[in-house]
Amino acid sequence: MSVSNPDRDGWEASEDETSLLTSGPVQDDRAADAALRPRRMAEFVGQPRVRDQLSLLLEAAKLHGRTPDHVLLSGPPGLGKTTLAMIIAAELGAPIRVASGPAIQHAGDLASILSGLADGEVLFLDEVHRLARPAEEMLYLAMEDFRVDVVVGKGPGATVIPLALPRFTLVGATTRAGLLTGPLRDRFGFTAHLDFYSHDDLVTVLRRSADLLGIKLDENGAAEIAGRSRGTPRIANRLLRRVRDYAVVRADGRLDRTVAQEALAVYDVDELGLDRLDRQVLSALCGRYRGGPVGLSTIAVAVGEEPGTVEEVSEPFLVREGLLVRTPRGRVATPAAFAHLGMSTPVEGGAPTLDLEIPGTPGPSVD
User: Is the pTM of this model over 0.70?
Assistant: First the structure.
């Protein structure tokens, strides 16, 4: 088990790091992301409700001279969960220790982390829903009673030694809150869900990042990049750096709307924020299969990717943008998908129907 460095991440972790538009941190960008991360709550852009609630929680804890309740932050990758954990520690003036749920495979791994905490320290557990079950059960007692029971020996001669812990604040982050067990979820005193950012908030994020990076970004250029960032600050910052590279090499450092459009065209990011894989999925669905329904594995074979990549990387954004619908019989393209590709719908009289459950009518198989 290893405890990671607080500055190792971008915004949050993700298993897929191959696409410019993935929400996970790309290795080369992690240091830059850490440099752009807000350090105080006043610098944090977006999520106004979460910011207000967290500010009240932290201020009350400081007034009463106690450690705050444990905090659970949930939401898609790239929205600022790691950043908020760092801000919580900074606002409290406390050190922070960072670990990842998948890295804690045994109860002893967790016990070594907990026993090394200082009084008032913040423990940040990323992907907390992926904790091993023995470690999770140990965490219950640590969160409630600030102690752990260490078992020495085996069988009838085993002895349980209670180990007192300093009072600490656990900040857990998860991209899949539904996978958290009830007992673990109930032990968090405050739960917050982070939503995708508005266009205006992303423009503000880009302006701040441009200032930190020493980039002269005009309002139209910022708006163009924000519109293609999928509502995610991490993606916005990544696109900003790629546009900056293009501007330095091919546009004399000028960064306006035209340069942003040209740069993002080079990187295969279209006006909706779709990348190469997204367009391949839509093209296969609308072109080869006339809008569907089509099974996931069939689409994956058609675009030359693994089904998990299509389902976890491409589909969430396509569904959120109303370009694709998941049905019991497979994936179906919406009229908006045909329009985006410049294609006419294959059904006479308008859009293809999404009511696919017709009694007595056999349909295409779902993979």
Answer: yes
